[in-house]
Amino acid sequence: MTYLVKRIDEQMYGCEEPAPDAEILVDVTLQTPTGAELVLPYPDAALTAADINEGDKIVIMLKKA
After folding, report:
1. Predicted confidence (pLDDT) per residue in 5-64, tens digit
2. Is 0.85 surpassed by the pTM of this model?
3. Would you call 49 helix, strand, or coil by DSSP?
4. What whole-number distance in Å separates Cα of residue 56 and Cα of residue 65?
5. CA dist 22 → 8, 35, 44 (Å)
6. What is the C-alpha to C-alpha distance for residues 30 and 42, in angstroms, rounded to an integer?
7. What is the number of other CB atoms lying within 10 angstroms of the CB of residue 55?
8. Which residues of 16-52 are buried (b: 16+ CB within 10 A; e: fewer)?
9. Domains of the chain in sequence order
10. Fewest C-beta in 10 Å: which of 15, 23, 46, 55?
11. Residue 18, C-beta contacts closer than 8 angstroms, at least 6 positions apart
């Protein structure tokens, strides 16, 4: 399915910092073609490597739980 990347926000860690070796995650808000939104945590480095930015349209397959 094709999704619109509406927002990419840093996750809030509060007063605790993530462990030095922890992967930094961001919250990615996606919008479906019908307008529904979902928020997924995703590694920031992977988004940067794939050059995925707000406003981009991406195709991903989501697994149902």
Report:
1. 999 998 877 777 777 888 889 999 999 999 999 999 999 999 999 999 999 999 988 677
2. no
3. helix
4. 26
5. 19, 33, 12
6. 12
7. 8
8. eeeeeeeeebbebbbeeeeeeeeeeebeeeebeeeee
9. 2-59 (2.40.50)
10. 15
11. 24
